[in-house]
Amino acid sequence: MTGTVLILIGGSMATVVGGLWAAFKYRRKPRCSGCGVPLDTQNDSRAHIIPNALGGRLAPKGIICRSCNTTLGNVADNALIDAFGVWPTLLDIPRQQGQNPTKTIDTRNGHRVRVKADGSSTKVDVQYDVAVIPEGHSIQISAGDMKTIRQLLLKAAKEFPQFDPTMAEGHARTIQDQGDQFKLNLDFSPQAVFGGVSTAIWLYLFLKTNRSFMDWKSLLAYITNAQNQGGQLRYFVEGLPGLRGPQIDLGHKLIVRSVPATGELIAYVEILGILKVGGIFAKSPRPGFALEHIYVHDVRQETDRSNEFSIDGAEFDRQDWKTVGLSPADAIALRAHFRKALEIFIHYYQQRFRATPSA
Q1: I want to staple 100 with a disulfide (CB 3.0 to 4.6 A). Which of 89, 241, 257, 301 is the partner?
Q2: Span 278-294, pLDDT tens digits
Q3: Residue 46: inside a domain
Q4: What is the pTM assigned to this prediction?
Q5: 3 state SS for the chain
């Protein structure tokens, strides 16, 4: 804006500048990248690109309204969270907001156990068995916590007036079933994870480029197709070709890079170092522009380590991105890969409670 323009418009400089600034602010007011509604303090929301429940830290505002954010949660993100089952609690994955919730787990011996993020566990099963014996009655009571035990003891006292609940509580003892094991699994099927991965890519692209690359209707269709048929997403079991950087045991990665010669936009999402999914997110009918963004978060250290990573362009560009990795149809190879992933999580869990050697 020049002095000449101000003179031609007329009015005082303060008035003209104020008026133009107000118009500029009005044009720049952010809108929801989903439904297009103007965003304000009432309807704006934090868009956790990787869900908070999985330790995601990128949570920008000014991208999506509460309503559309809820929609993405319902159609994609909640399934992605459920895919990891009880593992965020067992590993006590650091969250940006809140604490990991207590989870109920079935055991191989047919029990149910309530496990907290600190590693403590109690049985959920309640036993109250009364049997007739020559001396009268035998009562067997067990529960996962003393509060429930006391309630059952009071129940017995009402049923048998001669029963002394205080004396019985004094004889109560804690029993650990060392031979039992948790029944644990992971569900990394397309129905469980491809929707959340698609959402993460879409939000990350908007954060880095201020472009959505596909409108809301197209995004929801892309999510549905990815969940039902896999779309163009594949399991990059060996990681992203061309990515260079240090080993991070528990980490998140979000990477988008274009191949200008083909017009392909390649996206890669890695969650907790275990789930690795990528593929062609968009494609231009003509040669595209150069684009590259890398985000890496060390979940254990709670630090951004993006600047430690780079991409070998020559290796990246020579890939046939339609065939990199495994498709959902590669069932045998994927089962082996996911079994290994589960073993890695089990190792992390055991390592978490392993006694520290004395000096």
Answers
A1: 89
A2: 999 998 877 778 999 99
A3: no
A4: 0.81
A5: CCHHHHHHHCCCHHHHHHHHHHHHHHHHCCECCCCCCECCCCCECCCCCCCHHHCCCCCCCCCCEHHHHHHHHHHHHHHHHHHCCCHHHHCCCCCCCCCCCCEEEEECCCCEEEECCCCCEEECCCEEEEEEECCEEEEEEECCCHHHHHHHHHHHHHHCCCCCHHHHHHCCCCCCCCCCCECCCCCCCHHHHHHHHHHHHHHHHHHHHCCCCCCHHHHHHHHHHHHHHCCCEEECCCCCCCEECCCCCCEEEEEEEEECCCCEEEEEEEECCCEEEEEEEEECCCCCCCCEEEEEEECCCCEECHHHCEECHHHHHCCCCCCCCECCCCHHHHHHHHHHHHHHHHHHHHHHCCCCCCC
